[in-house]
Design brief:
seven-stranded parallel β-sheet, 1514 residues, six-stranded mixed β-sheet
Amino acid sequence: MEYQSIPCLNWNETHVSSWLQTIGLKLEYIEKLEKEEVTGPVLLTIEKSYLHEIGLQGGQIHLLLRKRDELLQQDKSKIQQNTSYLAEGREHAEPKADPCNGVTKLEETLSVSDDSATPVFLTPSGYRKFDDNDAYFCYKKNAILPPETGINKLITPCHEYKSLENASKLESRKLKVKFASEVIRFACACMNMRANGTIHFGVMDKTKTSHKHGEIIGIPIKDREDFEDALDYIEHCFPTKNSDARKCIKPPKFVPVIDKDDQTQNWIVEVDVVPMVNIVRGNLYSARIPKFNEKTKKVEYEQKAFYHRVGPNTPRITEDELVSFVQALIDLDQKREWEENDQNQAQVHVKEDLGRKLCVLLTRGKKCMDNTLRYIIVSNRFDQEHLQNIKFLAHMNIFSVFDFDPDSKLSGFCHNFQEHQAVNLHFLHDYDHRESITDFIKKLQLYERTSWIFCNGRSDYNGDESPCDERTWIKNKKKLLKRAVSVICNEILPKGSFVVLFILTSEVEQPLVDTFHEFYAEMSGQEDIVIISESMENYKKWASLAQVSCSLDALEQNSVVGMPISHVDATIQSIQLTCSQHKRSIPVSNKGVCFLKHVDEDNMFSLEVVSVDQCDETNEDIMEQEQINKIEQYFYQGGKLDWMNLWLADKNQCGEVIKRDAYEDINKMLEDLVLSSTSKRSIENINIYHHPGSGGSTVARQILWNWRKKIRCAMVKQSYQPTTVCEHAVLLQNYKEVDKNSCLPVLLLLEDCNTEYQDDLRRELSNAVTTLKISSSTLRFIILCCKRSLDPENMCKALPLRTVAVTHKLSSEEKKLFSKKSENLKPKFEPEFILTFVLMSKEFQPSYITGCVGNLLKGIDHSCSQTQLIKFVALLNSHIQNSYLSLSHCEAFLRLGIQMEEVRHHAFENYLSEQARFFFIQLKSSETHIDSFRIIHNLVAKEILKQLSIQQPQSAIAMDLLQNKVLFDHRFDQEEFKKFVRDLFIKRTKKSKGDPNDSWFSPLIEHVWKTESLEKAIGLLEVAYERFKEDAFVAQQLARLLNENKRFEEAHTWAECAKYRLPRHTYILDTVGQVYKKWFYHKHDAILEKDPIEPEDITDIIDTALKGMDAFRASENCPQSQKVCLNNSYFGEVDIGCRLLELLSYVDIFATKMGKLQLVDYLLTDYTPEEVQKPWQKFHGLLKGINNSIRIALECICEDLARFQNHSSEEEEELDEGEPEKINNPRKWLLRKSAVYAKFFSVDIQKEEAVGNDTVSPLMRQMKIFQLGGGNVTTILYLLSDSKRQRAGERLENIISLFPADLKGLDKTELINVMFCQIALCCASPSSEKLLSIEKLQELTRHFGRERRIPLPATANFLLSLLFWPEDLTSGEHSTTKSDIVTNAIGRLHRYYEINPTAQRKGRILTHFFLGKARGLNKIVHKTTIEKFIKGTFNERRLKWQGGEAWTNPEVVRLLKRVDGYTENGNLFIRVSKTNIRVIPLFSASLPSSNENMTFYLGFSFHGVVAFDIKVSQ
């Protein structure tokens, strides 16, 4: 059977039919498939749906697809066997192919070997079209032509090869004779046989050389006339009927041989013989073959002889054969005539169905073109007629365009396309990236807009990207093209997810062909490459150059040639799901609608706008019921609700989506805000907290869908910064609105965002509202935030009036809806395929989930790779939110790479086990742009993991995952995969993110540690450390785990290991300190059981403590620590220091009252007791400095808390090891620790107090003040947070009473502290007798300037700004001196703000005081005074602050004073005397772009003065 010797890829319809007969397919279906032109390539890619469509029944489809897949495997294994002996040598020559990024098209390669030569691969080649003058046809050097042939059909040419290897070097006359002799002999035989034939010169015949038979070598040609003139011998060689010979023997054709590695041009010379029956009928031809006589130097002729073809040879007809041969001529003439007639009829009647071919190639056999495939367009110059007929391109899902037209932006394809869609303009060098692929995609916005790559510069571009000629392009840009193609094919787009479309509309040039070569190489063949050429001439030239990479037959299969572009346009538009002329519309404030241009929408790329006519562009006529069912099933299986679901439901094409009770709650909130105008804010928040899979995001999308005709709605793409989203939201709000003050509100949906992002977006929108000079009580934006939570009802308490919980629990009404829906879905879908809906209808009851998963897992093969895949995905989904495994990774793991290359659009699910198909859902995320799989629901993933881990514990599954080389080495989507796996070992749960608790380790490690064993947890982390290239953070987790289990020496080793990898990372160094701290605490607690404790007993313990403090100090001194909001290392240093002081006081010689005095002397003076002289000799200096170390650490904590709100970022939460009190209430911790520290250094001063405060030593007084909370500004102001102001006032009076009556003698720090006590006392108890006047305090500030060389601390500058701020800016009574004091103080605070990186986070600045209307010290209003007027939960109060509602409170308006300022160049200023002071805008304090007079409330912070509730002056 002929087909068995040919690769599947090269089969025609006859070959396929022969094979179908051997597998036992019914004859009627074989005939149907042959009629449908099912060739080899079609067979390899055919789908079940297509077979069903053309009438095949289920059993026959199953048989065909099963046998087809077996055939593929056999084909691949043969190739691998043939090539395995070459693998060792090629390993060093080229990198190994990625198993899922494609394999080499070995079907197109021929293996040739002999005994003496190394085996080589030679590419097969086709012939030039017979008797055709194709000026562009070429042969590829060293390719192999089929073996020389005899005669089968008379019309089908026979072939004979002559190398002419030596003869081509002969002088002209000899060459002519040699050439003529071969042509005459061959032509005579063909004429006698009535058979077409071609004799090829330059192709190896059967001579013994290093070349193979049929190998294309080519010959150099000095003068073509030598070959053309050689045919003049015809008259001499054919003594009779030489005119017939002239008609049959065609002039020689010179076909170039292309060779990348050789600059010399060789040729194949071919002579076609066409013995038409009307010429040769009834004739027998004889010829005299010419020979060159070397002796006489003359041409001689052999005797006349008759020739014929016997197989591939051309022998003479012997006398014995002559009679019978002559008798047979009549039959040959008749046969020739029949075949000529058949050929003529075939040429008349057979025309290729180009329209169908085009559709199949572009959609991979689907009936319609949707967005499941992306397209890469490669084009050159379009003329104006073509530009009018490429509307289909505007509605294709185009990823990038490789444009070789330098004028494209001005007047070509790009200019035309930009009228429909926005594009990003790039050059080839833009793809030569060095950053991570994720950052690269984000930088170029590759999935948001079409990337338009100008491959040969731009004529309109002012930069250094001018067009160049071919040679310059090859020299300078070809390597950049190679890089760009490689990046797209191997790093960005998964294999099989895209089609490359070459549109040949102008003369073909080499760079365009080079692009084909690159795509062909990177995509491992032409399977997903399509060529459209209106001109046959263009195509021929293209094909001749492209055949270097791809055979002409394969090219032809993927090319649509001769179809006018206008026909291409109409044909493709007829199968596009998107209607070509559709315009989207959005509502406007006058109750009408306006059109939203595609280009304008593309410019709002951070938003997914939901239009009034969302999805109306869909062409219903070409949507099949099967496609509708898939959309519906995807949703009920656990996928996110798509707008298409709601659109189809509105059109009654599928069932309505259930509205949960929460929908009505949110709808009512929106009606109150939008229709009833109850909003008091320009920006409102509505929060949805939902159990995973309970339908929270469905509710949110239903809200957008049903409000899209009333207000403008959009989903936010959180991959973009809040500033970008804000900019686009404002554009959407103002789009085509006449009156900017009466715009409709914009409803923005945020899904699963962190609180920080939500706050930043709200702040940016507030800024924008202020800039637009709109009333702060006019509703402009509604942020609908939908978040997953494991305790949604509890999350509602934070903001009850604007929060809705969606749980797994169904109300009685919801139960009825779900029950009814379940009945409606039963006829359509098996319950296993809509498992998420079934579980939701059962309220995700644990027992039901357990039973359901248990039933589906019955009989599962635990050893097979598909089960292992389920385990891996379940492990990831159970512990890491939003994790997935890319389709490409799944294929690689299941070793489907080779198969899937040829049958990519064969659904991946067909290769999965039954269980995997039930549990997996394919993600269609607009954010990731990656086909991927996850378990249908988090609870199902947990249950699968629980049940499968009975056979294989989680630690073993995780270990297998870590050690799986295929998954980790797979290049595509590698970063995300590694991130998910890495998170398994280091990402902790946080209540703030909706998790059930704050975990100390990742959930996986905690599970393994507590349910399996500590050793297994350690082993996992050790392997993870190696897998992630000695990741410092994995080493850190190991250190923390060992530390928690009191294996301190090992913990210390791993902490130092992490430190070695990241020696300047503050959190790593903090972990080193934490190990020492816990180690020290352990030793401390153990030694306390000993009595008495001698100095020698604690030498080792002191050493550990001091090393811990040193490690914490190293963390504090890291450059990175300056960017951390509140460095935990300061807390650690204070903790160890205080505990060490406690331990020292237990030592026998210091245990008594006098011993304590002796210890204080030891620590504060040069005195060293004899008992500790020798045991502690290494530590004396360090111990004597411990007082200073603790004090400095407390001061640093104080400074941070004075400047910033205690709010940490996600990264800080993840890496920090802080204890709850330090994180949640650090000011309370500071007050308590200050008291502990001070108490240690205080002696009993009861007796000394009787003498008077002036006689108490400064240190003792300082320590006593510290104990009461007066030691620093943070603790002093924290006292005002006491809900009982009287108690706070009494405590402040006690602190003030400890200071001497004459304050002038105090040092600067004490003086600052007592003055802050005075201000705080005024806020707590304005009538206190201990209060000094503001004038007295102002006078005391003169002592700040005693030491002029030492700069004033921030606390002093803050005091000066408070005390000297003028009470009335308009009176002009404020002295120049006082104005200078204020200006200079605030200027110094600003300088700190500008140079300190943490200070730039405006939202975290802590404002302590506001400017009030009262006079004197009473003008200073503490923030707690304002806070008591703002009622509600913490989150509600926070929202009122951020939204500006706080400033409308009557009590606040009565108390605070508004001041006047102005804007200039985007900055806010206030004039004090004749000096301008810059004011920092906070919250809704963004500024108008114009220069305006402003009014605002003034606040005081350690960064300078800040403005709240900024408004343009009326």
